[in-house]
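S.,

Sequence below, as promised.
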Amino acid sequence: MKIRYLDQLIILLICILVIIAFGVIGCNNTEKVQAVPKFEELSLPPIEVTIAQVFDEFEIDSIAAHDKYNGKRLCFYDIEVEEIDTRSTKRYFISGNGKFYLRSTSLMQNVEPGFVLNLVGFCQGFSDISRELIVINDCWVESVVGDLGTDEWVDPY
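The prediction came back faster than expected:
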């Protein structure tokens, strides 16, 4: 009877050792994978300019202005809305030599002539061959004068 229990105990120990051996062998053959945290690159703050400044630079040397401003985020303060797209759905507004497209089409529906806005958007250069307007796309907007229907300023940075 003692031998029978001893045999069962030996078989159990052998099974445990085999399981441990497979575990050790399996862990040693795997590549060591380390989790590398992903960090988002910090974006540069927008360039503070006036629409007249950007327009003048494009008019003087469009290639240099294109290199300097195109695709860059620009910040405009106290832009007064002079004219609005008159289509059934408002798409843009004009101020000075700038044609501004807001990021939010629903906010654009609330914009009226005379509003004064702070904007951060991306410069796209001249709007057409006439070279009369500089296009600023994807604008975040904050109202200085006028009600856009929201009190919420979304930080674009």
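The chain has a mean pLDDT of 84.

Coffee later?
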